[in-house]
Design a protein that fits this description.
Elements: H1 38-41, H2 53-63, H3 66-71, H4 79-92, E1 105-109, H5 115-123, E2 128-132, H6 136-145, E3 150-152, E4 167-173, H7 182-192, E5 193-204, H8 226-235, E6 238-247, H9 250-258, H10 267-281, E7 300-307
Parallel strand pairs: 1-2, 1-4, 2-3, 4-5
Antiparallel strand pairs: 5-7, 6-7
Helix pairs in contact: 7-8
C-alpha cells in the first residue's frame, strides 16, 4: 500500500458520536473513531494503535485492497508520485551506503506495485529483497516483477515473519498511515534490523482530513504526528539518524497542477522550492486541522532512523 494525497478536505464539528460508524451513503465503512479525543487531536495519540484482535481484523478487511482499487495504477504515472520517488532517493536511498559493509537484505513494507523500490533493486541486484504487502493483487504483481523475491502477507497482529537482526534496510514510504498497530510494526522493525541498519520512512503528519466524513482515498488512512512517530521509533531501539525533514507540501502540488504543470519544472528545482516552503510551514504543524490557517502546515516528513550498533 502506498499513501495518497496528504491533506484532507475542510473539517466540520458537532456530529453525532459513536465509537465506529459507516460513513454517509457511498462511503466505505471506516474503523476510525467518530469521537475524536483530545489526545488524537493534538497528535499525542494515534487512532487505531490500541485495537483488539477483532478490530484489527476488521481494519485489515477494509483496507487490504482499498488502495489497489482506488489507485488503479495512477501512482506509477502521476508526476507527484514520481516526485515522491525523487524525494526517497535524495533523502533516503542516498544514505544507504553508510549502513554496515555486509549489507545485503532489504524489507519494503507496503510496496504496492513495487515501483518505489525498483531503481534501488536494479542498482543492488545482489541484495535479498523482501516485500510485505497486504493486497493479494499487488502480491501477484510483485511476484511477477521479482520472481526471486520473498513476498510476505502481513499479520494483523503486526508481527513480521523475518528473523531478528536479519535486515540491513527497511523502507516504509507512505504506508504506516494505512495500518492500525503502527507502534507494534515499528517495534518489529527494530527487532529485524541489524545493528547499524537503517529504517527509511515517509509519512503524512496530519489527520488527512476529518475522518467522520467520506475519505478521499482509503477508509482508514490517517497521518502520524512527527513527535509521536519519533517516540515509537525510540521505544523500538531506533535512533534518529537525521532530523525529520518536512517535505511534499501538498498545496504546491495543487498549484502546479492548476498552473504550469510538471513539464516546466525539474524535480531538482521543485525539490529546492518544496524544501523551503515545507520548512517555512513547519512552524504551523497541527495534527487535527479544523481551521483554515492550520491547513498551511507541513504535509509529510521524511525520517531516517538507525538501529544502534550496540543493540
Amino acid at each position: 500500500m502506498n499513501g495518497a494525497s496528504s491533506t484532507g478536505k475542510g473539517m466540520k464539528r458537532d456530529l453525532p458520536r459513536s465509537p465506529y460508524t459507516r460513513g454517509p451513503a457511498g462511503n466505505l465503512e471506516t474503523s476510525l473513531p467518530r469521537e475524536v479525543s483530545e489526545g488524537v487531536r493534538t497528535g499525542r495519540v494515534l487512532a487505531g494503535d490500541d485495537f483488539t484482535d477483532q478490530q484489527l481484523s476488521t481494519w485489515f478487511s477494509q483496507e487490504r485492497e482499498a488502495f489497489f482499487q482506488q489507485d488503479d495504477g495512477n501512482s506509477d504515472v502521476d508526476p507527484w508520485y514520481a516526485y515522491m520517488r525523487f524525494v526517497n532517493e535524495t533523502l533516503g536511498f542516498s544514505r544507504v551506503s553508510s549502513v554496515a559493509a555486509d549489507a545485503n537484505s532489504v524489507l519494503v513494507i507496503g510496496p504496492g506495485s513495487g515501483i518505489e523500490i525498483k531503481t534501488f533493486a536494479e542498482r543492488h541486484p545482489d541484495w535479498h529483497l523482501h516485500l510485505l504487502e497486504a493486497s493479494s493483487n499487488f502480491r501477484v504483481a510483485l511476484k511477477d516483477r521479482w520472481p526471486w523475491a520473498v513476498v510476505l502477507e502481513p499479520a494483523t497482529s503486526g508481527d513480521i515473519g523475518l528473523k531478528s537482526d536479519s535486515q540491513s534496510l527497511v523502507c516504509a514510504f507512505s504506508v504506516l498511515h494505512h495500518i492500525p498497530n503502527v507502534s507494534k510494526v515499528v517495534k518489529e522493525v527494530g527487532r529485524i534490523l541489524r545493528p547499524g541498519g537503517v529504517f527509511l520512512v515517509r509519512e503524512p503528519c496530519s489527520s488527512m482530513g476529518d475522518w467522520r466524513f467520506p475519505r478521499s482515498a482509503t477508509p482508514n488512512e490517517r497521518g502520524i504526528g512527527r513527535d509521536l512517530l519519533v517516540a515509537f521509533a525510540k521505544r523500538a531501539g531506533l535512533e534518529v539518524d537525521t532530523k525529520p525533514v518536512p517535505i511534499l507540501f501538498e498545496p504546491l502540488n495543487k498549484a502546479l497542477r492548476c498552473s504550469i504543470g510538471y513539464s516546466a519544472i525539474s524535480f531538482s528545482l521543485l525539490y529546492r522550492v518544496d524544501r523551503v516552503v515545507s520548512w517555512f510551514a513547519a512552524f504551523n504543524d497541527y495534527y487535527w486541522r479544523d481551521s483554515w490557517y492550520k491547513k498551511f502546515g507541513p504535509s509529510s516528513y521524511f525520517y531516517v532512523f538507525r538501529k544502534s550498533q550496540f543493540c
